[in-house]
Amino acid sequence: MPDYALERAAGGRVAGVDEAGRGPLAGPVLAAAVLFHAEPPLTLAMLLDDSKKLDAARREAAFGVLLQASRAGVLDYAIGAASTAEIGRLNILRATHLAMCRAVARLRTVPEVVLVDGNMPPPLDCAVRCVVKGDSLSLSIAAASILAKVTRDRAMTRLDARWPGYGFGRHAGYATAAHRSALERLGPCPHHRRGFAPVDQLVLL
């Protein structure tokens, strides 16, 4: 389970950053930044973990508590995104970093240190520390992973209503068998990512 040790060791104003949606064939990539103003209470900390380890109901519950904590002044959070067009123009890594930079820039409190999940630092104007498997180690990164994942899943559900047939609300744009089958049957929509082989192969047919 994640804890607050990395934040305590860094000192000062520390934000955690994580992304959701690097792997899908469609939709934006989202990032969230979370800055706790003090070590979060145990009742909140116990809800937080890598979003991939939580089922949808637990993610939604944690998401709601994080929003309540934000309104209560326990934390600041912000969401940043990079669009499908930006992913096609920049590549997925640079677009992910763009989403992370946008999230950090939107925080009400300017961080002195940013803890980033993974091993590739985005180009931020403050100290950055990469933490491999950070969403399993840091409460700030775990909170960011939940906020990013739930926000993106909701966005893909809205996209499903506009582009029915692909099943975005079920698979969030990931390359499931059902999504690949729909792609072959319907062809790509404007929200499918250029530069991803399963999409580009169909565009070139």
TrEMBL record:
Lyase found in the keyword field: no
UniProt keyword annotation of Coiled coil present: no
Molecular function in Gene Ontology: RNA-DNA hybrid ribonuclease activity
Domain of life assignment: Bacteria
Names of the cofactor(s): Mg(2+); Mn(2+)
Top-rank EC class of the record's enzyme: hydrolase
Name of the protein in its database record: Ribonuclease HII
Protein residues bound to a divalent metal cation: 18-19, 117
Role according to the record: Endonuclease that specifically degrades the RNA of RNA-DNA hybrids.
Species this chain originates from: Teichococcus globiformis
EC number in record: 3.1.26.4
Keywords, comma-separated and alphabetical: Cytoplasm, Endonuclease, Hydrolase, Manganese, Metal-binding, Nuclease
Family to which the UniProt record says this protein belongs: Belongs to the RNase HII family.
Domain RNase H type-2: 12-205
Subcellular location: Cytoplasm
Family annotation (InterPro entries): RNase_HII (IPR022898), RNase_HII/HIII (IPR001352), RNase_HII/HIII_dom (IPR024567), RNaseH-like_sf (IPR012337), RNaseH_sf (IPR036397)
Database matches in Gene3D superfamilies: Ribonuclease H-like superfamily/Ribonuclease H
Cofactor notes: Manganese or magnesium. Binds 1 divalent metal ion per monomer in the absence of substrate. May bind a second metal ion after substrate binding.
Pfam family, one: RNase_HII
Reaction it catalyzes: Endonucleolytic cleavage to 5'-phosphomonoester
